[in-house]
Design a protein that fits this description.
single chain, about 425 residues, mainly beta, 4-stranded antiparallel β-sheet, 4 helices, about 5% helix, about 35% strand
Length: about 425
């Protein structure tokens, strides 16, 4: 329930970066040392060098990545210094085969089929590996990569890898004549050069972002799409205004309603709201960053924002108190939790000019239940936490959820 210094546990290793906290399991982290070696740190304090990741379980098989230099990593996918792509734990791009050691994806002539792994008949019906002899130059997430010919490739949940760039070049595609600017987390959705969202894992790309003004350009788009059809997106435009569309069942649209909407709404311009008043009263005001955990079930309907004044805004789902507004009730409109009177958060801002500089939204998956914890770093170098505390992850010395920000840096001389 208190922070642990990993460097103290492994004093002979100098760590320089946290590469990524895994979405699948929040208790595992990838760390990079001063020699550019990659490690996996487990919740129980164990540390494994990634090239020999499963040596404890399979000492006779260290994986294709053994001895290679990793230059980029995302989730369970890696690129080495030669432009080879590796995957593990079912994300090897070779169709439904689960391995706990890295497998080279682009340096083999044939890929596996979807047959069971122990069905020896698959050797009589191999599939040509579309990525064979490709040089991989970029890795966007565990779904989309780019090769040296500027082709974008997509790994669907099942079936063969898909060349998105070929689809875009087809005239019947709504992406025809456009380029892909960015991918949205799961990789099933992309933002094109027209600043609109397309789904690309179907038979052909589908335009899903209707009725958006042509002059809107997004700085960031976060979304939630799941099998229950409870879908929505929230976008931050280059002028620092927030747009939302889709399902509003937990108040995540931010327009004061729980109803669905098929037309994008600029919630920054809704008259009479606290957010709209900020834009009116301060011409330089804008939202700087969006924080949404889109891979978690209901908790992905919680939106946290940081504005240009270092203040925090939130709305949507609030079961664990992750909105930080002093309650566990949904909020259908954005609330500036920094402005809530008689709170430590507000007092620190007013009395000590304590402005939030960065925010981390962390999701915890335990037995198919999801919990969200928030951590924020202020301009005075102090840490604030709120939300779920089921494993003591808020570093408050207990395991009680907090529905208002707590400055853990002030709780004990042992927590700095």
């Amino acid at each position: 329930s208190a922070p642990v210094c990993i460097n103290d546990l492994y004093p002979t290793i100098t760590f320089i970066d946290i590469v990524k906290s895994l979405n699948i399991n929040s208790y595992e982290y990838f760390l990079k040392d001063i020699n550019n070696k990659l490690y996996r740190y487990l919740y129980n304090g164990e540390l494994y060098e990634i090239k020999n990741d499963s040596a404890a379980q399979k000492p006779q098989y260290k994986g294709d990545l053994y001895g290679k230099t990793v230059i980029k990593q995302n989730g369970y996918l890696y690129i080495d210094s030669d432009g080879n792509l590796y995957g593990e734990s079912g994300l090897d791009g070779l169709e439904d085969f689960y391995d706990t050691v890295p497998i080279c994806i682009n340096n083999r002539e044939f890929s596996r089929t979807r047959s069971p792994r122990y069905n020896k008949g698959i050797i009589n019906n191999p599939k040509v590996n579309k990525l064979n002899n490709s040089i991989i130059t970029d890795l966007y997430n565990d779904k989309i990569i780019k090769d040296n010919n500027r082709n974008y490739w997509f790994f669907p949940d099942s079936g063969e890898v898909i060349n998105i760039s070929q689809k875009v070049s087809a005239e019947e595609s709504p992406l025809y004549g456009k380029t892909i600017k960015d991918t949205i987390i799961s990789g099933k959705y992309v933002i094109a050069s027209d600043n609109k969202i397309y789904r690309i894992d179907l038979g052909k790309p589908v335009y899903i972002m209707d009725n958006l003004p042509d002059n809107i350009e997004f700085k960031d788009v976060q979304y939630k799409f799941d099998n229950d059809n409870m879908l929505y997106y929230v976008g931050l435009d280059i002028n620092g205004k927030v747009w939302a569309c889709g399902n509003g069942n937990f108040g995540q649209i931010g327009n004061g309603s729980l109803a669905n909407t098929t037309t994008p709404i600029c919630i920054s311009d809704i008259a009479g709201t606290e957010l709209a008043n900020e834009y009116i009263n301060n011409s330089s005001f804008k939202i700087e960053n969006l924080y949404v955990k889109s891979n978690v079930y209901k908790n992905s309907y919680s939106i946290i924002c940081l504005d240009s004044n270092g203040k925090v805004w939130s709305w949507g789902y609030n079961f664990d108190g992750q909105l930080g507004n002093g309650t566990t009730m949904y909020s259908s409109t954005p609330i500036c939790i920094t402005n809530i009177a008689n709170t430590d958060f507000n007092n620190a801002y007013v009395n000590n000019n304590s402005k939030i500089k960065s925010i981390l939204v962390n999701d915890i998956n335990i037995s198919y239940s999801n919990f969200v914890s928030i951590a924020a770093l202020d301009s005075n170098g102090k840490i604030w936490t709120w939300g779920s505390n089921i494993n003591g992850n808020l570093a408050t010395g207990d395991k009680e959820n907090k529905n208002s920000p707590i400055c853990v840096s002030d709780l004990s001389t042992e927590i700095v």
